[in-house]
Write a structure and sequence with these properties.
By secondary structure, the protein is mainly alpha-helical. It is built from 14 helices and two strands.
């Protein structure tokens, strides 16, 4: 029993990956479109988890950086005719630079003030997009005819190809950030999160470490934003209001801000919840109802499950493992 429980997380992860790879061949292209959006948004949530869950920094502007990634990729494809791969690299580099510009004063401000700085950026971003129509397309945004990603083979439809590309990018990103925080830098981050003064006293360069995390987090958000824009085939200012940044924060808290798989759970919630409400409640009421439910779910998670859905599942798994461990000696005694 203990052996099964030891391997259960790895088995569950393997099964989940196999199912995820099989999905394009089991569902319609319409369903794959929504699932591709989930994978792209999950990258945005992962970037927030990296920032909040592992370095203790608060950002309410991640939606704006996500949007900058989307606009950067679409601009270089539309005006410079760059291939998609180079457009993704451009989005990552641009967002890393933006992250450095925000992070330099941000890490010194820290805590509540950093949250205020990033919320101002999130509020200003759509306004800037509207004010620079010659560059950003204004209210109409930037569109690509037929989307940005095309299947290179007749064996896969465009929707199947896009989903699989996003799945591979997401898995590689999770692997990369997981390795990043599980090594020496992860221990330094834990020390900074627990007590920055104590961490600095033992030689940890706290500001430099926080800035590096802010830049990496922004780069991941930019990658997610670029892929999201390519899935939709357009970027418009209405996609990146301040509410979107708050929604990413809700997804991080609901899924668990210290869990990479929890980021996917959070992304599922924020992508599918408005769709379910729009189907159940016609008109504009569904949007307000979805926001109300987001607020209720966020409040419930903070009170009942502060570590999110992933933390709740983890607690259940650990309780099951403890029960199984206690039962083994008694079972042996009964046998004897």
């Amino acid at each position: 029993m203990t052996t099964i429980l030891h391997w259960l997380p790895r088995i569950a992860t393997g099964v989940a990956i196999v199912i995820a790879v099989s999905i394009p061949f089991l569902v319609t292209d319409y369903d794959l479109f929504a699932m591709s959006r989930v994978l792209a948004v999950a990258l945005g949530v992962i970037s927030l988890n990296l920032l909040m869950g592992f370095s203790g920094q608060i950002s309410l502007g991640q939606g704006a950086i996500f949007g900058i990634g989307g606009y950067a990729s679409m601009l270089v494809i539309r005006h410079l005719e760059w291939p998609v791969a180079l457009a993704l690299v451009a989005a990552v580099v641009v967002c890393a630079i933006v992250g450095a510009i925000i992070g330099l004063p941000g890490v010194r401000l820290g805590g509540f003030n950093l949250g205020l700085l990033t919320i101002v950026i999130a509020a200003l971003f759509p306004i800037v997009l509207y004010r620079l129509p010659d560059f950003t397309g204004g209210q109409a945004g930037i569109t690509l005819s037929g989307g940005g990603l095309f299947s290179p083979t007749g064996a896969l439809t465009d929707a199947q190809w896009i989903y699989l590309v996003l799945l591979v990018v997401l898995l590689l990103s999770i692997l990369g950030v997981r390795n990043l925080v599980s090594r020496r830098i992860g221990r330094a981050l834990a020390a900074v999160r627990a007590n920055p003064i104590l961490a600095a006293s033992v030689g940890v360069e706290t500001d430099r470490l926080k800035l590096a995390l802010f830049v990496i987090s922004s780069a991941v958000a930019g990658l997610g934003g670029a892929l999201y824009a390519l899935v939709l085939g357009l970027v418009v200012p209405e996609s990146y209001p301040l509410v979107f940044s708050i929604t990413l924060l809700v997804a991080s808290v609901v899924g668990g801000n210290r869990s990479w798989w929890g980021a996917i759970i959070g992304a599922v919630v924020i992508v599918y919840l408005p769709t379910w409400f729009s189907e159940a409640v016609p008109g504009d009421t569904s949007a307000y109802l979805a926001q109300l439910v987001f607020a209720v779910v966020l409040g419930a998670c903070i009170i009942i499950a502060p570590s999110g859905a992933a933390g709740l599942i983890g607690r259940g798994y650990r309780a099951l493992a403890r029960t199984a461990t206690r039962d083994i000696p008694s079972t042996r005694e009964e046998t004897q």
